[in-house]
Amino acid sequence: MIELRNVTKRYEGQAAVELLSFTVEAGELCVLIGPSGCGKSTTLKLINRMIEPSEGEVLIDGRPAAGVRPELLRRQIGYVIQSIGLFPHMTVAENIAVVPRLLGWSRQRVAPRVEELLDLIGLDPSLYRAKYPRELSGGEAQRIGVARALAADPPILLMDEPFGAVDPLNREVLQAEFLKIQRNLKKTVVFVTHDLDEAIRLADRIVLLSRGRLVQIDTPENLLSHPKNKFVRNFVGGDRALKRLSRFIVSEHLQPAASIALFDAQFGTRIAALKEEGKRFVWITDRSESLFGWIDLREVDGLANPKLAVTRATGADIAVRSSASLREALSRMLGQGIKVVPVLDDAGRLVGEVSLADIERMTGT
Amino acid sequence: MRVAEDPLGLAPSARPAHRRSGAAASAPSRSRGYLRWAFTLLAIALFGLAVADMPAWKAALSLLFPGSTELVYPRASLAALVGEHLFLVAVSSAFAIGLGLPLGVLVTRQGGRAFLPLVNDLSSLGQTIPPVAVLALSVPLLGFGTAPTVLALFLYSILPIVRNTIAGLNQVPADVIEAARGMGMTSAQCLFRVELPLAVRVIMAGVRISVVINIGTAVVGAVVGAGGLGTAIIAGLVRENSAFVLEGAVAAGLLALLIDQLLGRVEELFAREGW
User: Fold this and answer.
1) Quick one: how far is CA B235 from the chain centroid?
2) Chain A contacts of B181, Cβ < 8 Å?
């Protein structure tokens, strides 16, 4: 649990953060958000004493943070920054092992922990253990950054725009992975972002700051449905219903999709069977189970070869990834003028579909 | 001032130590590293043999100066001159490194930043005063021989070390330091585990430049009787015997090349493969 009590930070008389009070409960993912210069990063750094408050106090599990030596305090708090800051002269394994080593863990204890963490973030230890940071992609480096912060199993995690420097596609994947990890580990997380969609997608609660002061602290749903004042309304914008869709992940709402492999020997028979079931649109996959196109069963009639009715469409054109949000699925539908989008897994295989009706059900509740 | 802001153009922008392009492939560079070591040690051994073998020098010089009767400086063996020369260089460089490195570290710490301009100016000043002038000024105080020479060489060689230490530490990315502190490293742990390892290439480059310049400059020591290869050169100038001059100059040049090679190998030891 983290508690800020009337915390103020002044720089040369100018308040960066003023009389800030809020509590982050244990196991809660709390997102700090606001326009640039609102003091969100400063607030984060006040928690691990990278910045010392001018007034007020920070309590961690009920004890004042100021009572602990900053180094010892920080070793109990995971820290991830936007630029990651992996140590370029250390391998991935050495980077992850930094805090455990600072805490004096034995070699026998550190090595399996590194493996465990690499597994957790989905990178094969035998491939990644000995790599240097310059050999990693942005997304991989960011995953290692998270693994490094989790290394000594700290109860608290501070994350300063951790996915800010990653491209949008990878950001979604990282967010989904992080949510999955967080659901298992239940860390107390304070997460800074300027991306409202990210905040809505990840947060248990959102702390909205403006000019160093707290404006509203609420769950994403409440922030969107009951903005406290004009500032909040403007900040969350007019597309609040759309933004709520960001909280739902496609993989949790997908429906099984009817599909046929293009080279299926029984192509014709299967088409007929599906038609019998009353289906109209069926996805067509190629040899590698990735999307090849779709077929409108109404157009099959009278054709010598039903394959002639197949419309070519690749995943890049019309599909969404299972880690994407329903908001993106909707955007795809609008962009392509379709009411159902196919869903692909990370390997590009068809795993299901999401329809406009599914999405309407979500916005209704 | 002979050495500009950025000795050898090793500025961070030119070659950031933390992110060189794929050149540092791991496995093949290791075997090539052994080869380079073997080559360097072989060259040093050959130089040692040549220095120890006076007749060989005489034979070589007699080809250049067929008429001359005195081909090598008679009052000391070449090996002894090289030994004295190395001693002067070693002592003055040890002082320069021993003072320059901590000074460079100090002025890049939070508490020492105020001294950065002062240290920069003082080390530049050391480089701008010609060593001969330092000798002339210090002999009345320190007497003849080793002491004033070591002082002159020390003052002359501290600049590249201080400057490269500062440049090397300043080019460590701020986010890396923030991460180190944020993870709970003390400032000393951050310095020794993160900053110095990332700065070591640039610092070593400064040491290399400094030592090589020092080997050339140490020739002046002969003027005040400190010995070294300058002795043969000055004797040659006085007696108008070019063979003596060549003996001292060639040996000093070869020595500088060899030490540079050797320090290059040491530099490679510090920089771990892979990054």
Assistant:
1) 26
2) 50, 74
Do B184 and A102 count as a contact with CB atoms less than 8 A apart? yes
Does the reported pTM lie above 0.90?
no
A188, A310: one domain: no
Contact B60, B254 (CB under 8 A): no
Instruction: Give the residue with greater pLDDT, A207 vs B67.
Output: A207
Is the separation of the CB atoms in A196 and A35 below 8 Å? Answer: no
CA distance B50 to B46: 6
Domain boundary among A198, A216, A242: A242
CA distance A135 to chain B (A): 9
- Hey, what amino acid is at B235? A
Give the number of other Cβ atoms within 10 Å of residue A349's Cβ.
15
pLDDT band at B56 (very low <50, low <70, confident <90, very high): confident
pLDDT digits (tens, 9 = 90+) for A14-38: 899 999 999 999 999 999 999 988 9
Beta carbon pairs, A and B, within 8 Å: 72
The answer to whether the CB atoms of A134 and B19 lie below 8 A apart is yes
- Domain check: are A136 and A237 in the same one? yes
- Final residue belonging to a domain, choices A217, A242, A267: A242
**What is the domain range of residue A16?**
2-242
A27 and A169 inside one domain: yes
The CATH number of whichever domain residue A284 belongs to comes to 3.10.580.10
Strand partners, A247: none
Contacts of B275 in chain A (CB under 8 A): 88-89, 132-134
Residues in chain A with CB shorter than 8 Å from the CB of B27 are none
Q: Between chains, do A71 and B173 touch, taking CB under 8 Å as contact?
A: no
Residue B232 half-sphere exposure, CB side, CA atoms within 13 Å?
A: 27
- What number is the ipTM of this complex? 0.74
Nearest chain A residue to B175 by CA distance is A85
Residues A197 and A310 reside in one and the same domain = no
Contact A60/A98 with Cβ under 8 angstroms?
Answer: no
Give the model's confidence band at B270: pLDDT under 50 very low, under 70 low, under 90 confident, else very high: confident
CA distance A292 to chain B (A): 38
Residues of B with CB under 8 A from a CB of A: 18-19, 173, 175-186, 189, 194, 197-198, 272, 274-275
Chain B CB within 8 Å of residue A99 CB: yes
CB under 8 Å to A269, separation ≥6 — which residues?
A: none
Q: Which CATH class is domain B25-270?
A: mainly alpha
Portion of chain A with pLDDT greater than 70, in percent: 99
For the stretch A172-200, pLDDT in tens is: 889 989 998 999 999 999 999 998 989 99
Nearest CA in chain A to B273: A89
The number of domains in chain A is 2
- pLDDT category at B15 given cuts 50, 70, 90 is very low
